[in-house]
């Protein structure tokens, strides 16, 4: 599995102009010429029994594929209780694969057997002496196409409501993750990553059709921000946004909000659910991205595309610079920023 995976290629592909969707205005009325597919959001119950969690996820994936889903999304931390005590115990060596990572071995086998693409939620990953909150993407061939390590860790303290500090056990990832699949170009984030619009802008600038965020918002921020942030990221970038939460377990140490959702490129909620365990099946039609973008005048659209490309490079520099020694990125940042400031001056951008 590890030999087929090129992390640099998956996380940082060449910058692209916003792509032409797979249909034109003329063909929008002809369903036979449009690329429409079904997505499944598997809102799973999670227990302390890891073997049960893996078998349960496999069954959900099979059920979703049986209903016609070509893309299946799992929740954040679906193989383990969501706690700092559990992360080290349930962590797997994803790069080693096989018996060292039974969760991803199952995902790989299921994707290949069912001929579907799987956004594998996230699991605790062990790499050397570090732990990560990691999402794996598997293609129809069962190969690992991308691996996203949660960039923005969930360190929060709302007095009288909730306190959780992921950084006690987990290490932050360093790279945005965008991946080409059989169902389009997908940008990946995990839970708290959705709060950072710059990350979504990176993905939009690099031609993503869909943003997927496995996430486990809580009972405090969930009612306030979960749907709001999904709709904002979709409307900001005129893309599809899909989220997948664990089902709510009020007896667990951490109680998830649930409400897995698919949002369309105009910020409209296309499918959602409550907090119980369920599988949402919904359709995605990428021609709607083009349709929504027709509302923006061509000159403004071109300007927005250019600004997105500039901001994408800035954010990647900032993300990497925040995680590594600043001296290692200073020269790159100065060169990049000099060029972009020159372009801004030419266009009169303030």
UniProtKB/TrEMBL annotation:
A cellular component term, taken from the record's GO annotations: mitochondrion
Extent of Basic and acidic residues compositional bias: 1-11
Source taxon at top rank: Eukaryota
Listed SUPFAM superfamilies: Carbon-nitrogen hydrolase (SSF56317)
Single GO term (MF): omega-amidase activity
Location of the CN hydrolase domain: 37-286
Keywords linked to the UniProt accession: Hydrolase
Protein name stated in the entry: CN hydrolase domain-containing protein
InterPro entries given in the database record: C-N_Hydrolase, C-N_Hydrolase_sf, Nit1/2_C-N_Hydrolase
Region span, Disordered: 1-29
CDD domains membership: nit
Source organism phylogeny: Eukaryota, Viridiplantae, Streptophyta, Embryophyta, Tracheophyta
